[in-house]
Write a structure and sequence with these properties.
By secondary structure, this protein is mostly helical. The chain has helices at 13-30, 40-49, 54-61, 84-94, 101-113, 117-129, 131-143, 146-158, 160-166, 172-192, 195-209, 216-239, 246-255, 259-281, 283-289, 299-311, 324-347, 350-374, 389-404, 415-437, 451-459, 476-484, 518-525; strands at residues 65-68, 464-468, 492-495, 510-514, 529-535, 539-544.
Length: 545
């Protein structure tokens, strides 16, 4: 299908509003890039790209020595003797479930622009811009409507979730680009049956797998879409051929098999074999480093996280995780999403509705079923659901375009009502992005969420010493590096491998303890020192009884 532009449409008031909204979304991606906490996973992006591994850093740091906080940032910079091989080795040894493509890109970026927070986050922000024209093209391919395509582009551009992760030094904005790009190529290949298109689809899909392991969720949804579309579209045609014998019907059924898709799938697997070998050879390491996702949580927790995850595409404001107002506020946006999916299913052709349904529900089901059957919280990690999100933007865009572009209103088709709905969506997104833009932390910071508050408390001291060890969950190393960006230059760190002698510090020093291991906590509490909680579960102040 050829993309044809009607220039008149771009001078309509609604379209002008959408273009302004897209421009605002682009601006949000680059606003205050260095404002939020550079959290645990971002630290590891820089650490891996620079060729370090955590084991060597731990061995070097936790030696009962006092160091200035700023010294930790040397692990975020490429060393002169380091090479791309060091980046690959760092991943294969410690994080084999993270394919290397984005880390190699980040290393090239660091070599050119340095390792500052702004430089590190500008890469994903720039990459995220590619998703905007791509979702326009994908929407046009599916619905042949410029208004639908422009609405889908607007929703992705202003999405609080997309902007949040466009400002995160991780691979997720690149994953979004590749999800949309591979979907475009798949539809083009199915439409044209040209081997060149299938070759491009195989290459882009392999690049997706080399970017993030969970890109396989998109490929599985593509496979189920192709197979189900083939089965359903050919079943009626074959069954209705009453004059043909059963053998003729079977031959016709076999002849329509999507062999080109299966060949492309084999090509993708062949291209990905090198990293498959890495994962297989380090399977135990993969299991150990992803063990946190298999921790069982309550069904109530799962439902809350699902609501927050999907509504965050349009609104990211809340009153607290356990406050009912948070979920009442987001109910309208979930209704709009469901209504959009229903409208696609009710009004579109078989292939279009199948594409939308498989794109949303196949990745979701793959993540949800293990959590329900065996326990875990894979489906509660919003960034793991990225494969579902482009189709949701498309569905809501189709819903609004269907009624905003209709000349003859129906029961639900009054334009003024749908203009209000669009206004609510845009206002919620802009408000959410505005609040987030001026915040120093956000829910996506996970284990580093309280680092900004910890730094403020420590910085307020005249002569602070921050004491810690490796901790129980091995996140202290990256969190200390995260803190080093926001701690004052006079803050000293005492990094322990054994019990400390606190008597060595004079009365003029204020001692803080940051996320100690259970062993260290018990040792400290057994002394004559008294602990005062400063940041719940994160920071304590120590003083004599």
């Amino acid at each position: 299908m050829t993309l044809k532009f009607n220039h008149k449409i771009f001078f309509q008031p609604l379209v002008i509003l959408l273009i302004i909204s897209i421009t605002l979304g682009i601006g949000f991606r680059f606003f205050h890039l260095d404002k939020k906490v550079y959290w645990h996973d971002e630290v590891f992006t820089s650490l891996r790209a620079a060729g370090f591994n955590r084991t060597d850093i731990d061995r070097e740091l936790f030696q009962n020595q006092i160091i200035p906080a700023e010294q930790l940032q040397k692990y975020q910079k490429i060393q002169p003797q380091s090479t791309f091989i060091g980046t690959l080795e760092s991943l294969t040894i410690e994080n084999p479930h993270h394919p290397p493509l984005y880390y190699l890109m980040a290393r090239l970026w660091m070599q050119k622009f340095g390792g500052s927070l702004t430089a590190s986050r500008s890469l994903p922000a720039l990459i995220s811009l590619l998703s905007l024209p791509l979702i326009y093209v994908l929407s046009w391919q599916l619905f042949n409507s410029h208004l639908t395509a422009l609405l889908a582009t607007t929703f992705l551009a202003l999405s609080p979730f997309e902007i949040l992760f466009a400002q995160t030094a991780r691979q997720y904005s690149l994953v979004t680009v590749l999800i949309i790009g591979s979907s475009i190529l798949l539809l083009q290949a199915l439409d044209s049956r040209i081997w060149k298109n299938w070759g491009l689809y195989s290459i882009v899909s392999a690049i997706g797998l080399y970017t993030h392991l969970f890109f396989c969720l998109t490929l599985i949804s593509h496979g189920i879409f192709v197979i189900s579309n083939w089965l359903l579209s050919n079943y009626v045609a074959i069954i209705s051929s009453k004059n043909k014998s059963n053998l003729s019907k079977f031959k016709l059924f076999i002849q329509t098999l999507p062999l080109d898709f299966f060949i492309a799938s084999v090509a993708i697997i062949i291209l990905y074999i090198p990293w498959i070998v890495v994962v297989i050879n380090n399977l135990q390491r993969v299991y150990d480093t992803t063990n946190w996702a298999r921790v069982s949580v309550s069904f109530d927790f799962l439902v809350k996280k699902w609501i927050l995850s999907f509504s965050s595409l349009f609104i990211d404001l809340d009153f607290g995780f356990n406050h009912i107002g948070t979920y009442l506020l987001r109910l309208l946006f979930l209704i709009i999403i469901v209504w959009g999916i229903y409208t696609v299913c009710h009004s579109c052709s078989l292939s279009r509705k199948l594409f939308i349904l498989t794109s949303i529900f196949v990745p979701l089901i793959i993540l949800v079923i293990p959590d329900l059957l065996w326990g875990g919280k894979r489906s509660t990690v919003t960034r793991y659901l990225i494969s579902c999100f482009p189709a949701i933007y498309l569905s809501v865009a189709y819903l609004l375009a269907k009624y905003l572009g209709r000349e003859h209103p129906t029961l639900f088709g009054e334009k003024k009502y749908w203009r209000v709905v669009l206004g609510i969506l845009l206002t919620a997104s802009i408000a959410s992005c505005s609040v987030s833009a001026f915040s120093d932390t956000w829910w996506s910071k996970s284990v580093s969420y309280f680092n900004a508050e910890v730094a403020k408390k420590v910085n307020a001291s005249d002569s602070p010493i921050l004491l810690t060890d490796l901790g129980d969950d091995y996140t202290n190393t990256a969190n200390l590096i995260s803190l080093s960006y926001i701690l004052d230059d006079d803050v000293r760190l005492l990094l322990l491998s054994q019990s400390p002698n606190l008597e060595m510090f004079g009365d003029e020093s204020e001692i803080f303890v940051f996320r100690p291991s259970g062993r260290l906590g018990e040792v400290l509490k057994g002394t004559q020192w008294e602990f005062q909680s400063i940041v719940d579960g994160e920071l304590w102040k120590v003083k004599k009884r």
